[in-house]
Amino acid sequence: MSHISPVLWEFLVNWLKHFAIFPPEASTIAPYADALYFALIGMTITGLILVGCMVLFFSIRYSKTRHPEAVQIEGSTLLEATWTLIPLGIFLVFFVWGALLYFRIYNPPPNSMNIYVVGKQWMWKVEHPGGQHEIDTLHIPAGVPIQVTLISQDVFHSFSIPAFRVKREAIPGRYTTVYFEATTPGKYHLFCTQYCGTDHSGMGGWVYVLPRDQYKKWAAGNTSGASLAQNGERLFAVMGCNACHAGNSQARGPNLYGLYNSRIRMTDGSTMIANEAYLREKILNPSLHVPAGYVPIMPTYQGQISEDGLIDLVEYIKSLDSNYRLTQMMNKSELDSAQPAPIGGANQGAGAAPLPGVPKP
Amino acid sequence: MDSQTIATAPEEQLPGGVGRHEHPSFLRHHFETVGQQREAASFGMWVFLLTEVMFFGGMFCAYLIFRNWYHPAFVAGSNTLDITLGTTNTAVLICSSFTMAMAVFSAEMRRKGALMLFLVLTIFLGLVFLGIKGVEWHQKYVDHHIPGMGFSIQEFVHPTNPKAVALAPDMAEKTQIYFSLYFLMTGMHALHMVIGVSLLFFLLWRASRGAYTEGHIMPIENFGLYWHFVDIIWIFLFPLLYLISRYQ
Amino acid sequence: MSATIVSLPDQATATLPRKSFLNQEYGLKSWLLTGDHKRIAILYLVSITFFFVIGGILAGLIRLELLTPTADLMATDTYNKVFSMHGIIMVFLFLVPSVPATIGNFLIPLMVGARDLAFPKINLLSWYLYVAGGLVILGAMILGGVDTGWTFTTPLSTHYLNTHVVTAAMGIFLAGFSSIFTGLNFIVTIHRMRCPGMTWFRLPLFAWGHYATSIIMILGTPVLAITLVLVALEATLNIGVFDPTKGGDPLLFQHLFWFYSHPAVYIMILPGMAVISEVISTFSRKRVFGYTAVAFSSVAIAVFGFFVWEHHMFIMGVSQYSALVFSLLTMLVAVPSAIKIFNWSATLYQGSITFETPMLYAFGFLGLFTIGGLTGIFLATLGMDVHLTETYFIVAHFHFVMVGGMLMAYLAGVHFWWPKMTGRMYPEGISKVSAIVTFIGFIVTFFPQFLLGYLGMPRRYAAYPADFQVLNVFSTAGASILGIGYLLPMLYLPWSLKYGKIAGDNPWQATGLEWQIQSPPLTENFVEIPIMDHEAYDYEWLANKIEHEVQTVG
Question: Could you tell me if the ipTM is greater than 0.85?
Answer without folding.
Answer: yes
